[in-house]
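step=encode ok
step=design start
structure_in=
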């Protein structure tokens, strides 16, 4: 039995159908412009979330709230992730 890799539960045929529909609706000339717009929108969203995170951190530091706890938690999560990758690195998933 052959099992194909799927991305977001979308198979190859569905992806081709979606791409075909996008080309038919928007036209081949407009697709790069739409992709640029989506990229800019995602970048603006990321920048806005980083600004909010920075403001929260700055406000917490000004009010004397210890923000090193989050760094400790991030460090521990990274250690667990690395350990998990080391453990699962030797296991190959074949289906």
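sequence_out=
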């Amino acid at each position: 039995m052959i099992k194909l890799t799927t991305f977001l539960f979308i198979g190859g045929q569905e992806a081709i159908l979606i791409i075909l529909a996008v080309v038919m609706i928007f036209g081949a000339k407009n697709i790069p412009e739409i992709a640029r717009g989506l990229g800019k929108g995602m970048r603006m969203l990321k920048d806005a979330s980083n600004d909010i995170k920075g403001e929260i951190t700055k406000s917490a530091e000004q009010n004397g709230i210890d923000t090193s706890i989050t760094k400790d938690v991030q460090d521990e999560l990274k250690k667990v992730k690395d350990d998990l990758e080391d453990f699962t690195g030797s296991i190959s998933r074949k289906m």
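step=design ok
step=annotate ok -> The chain has one domain: 12-87.
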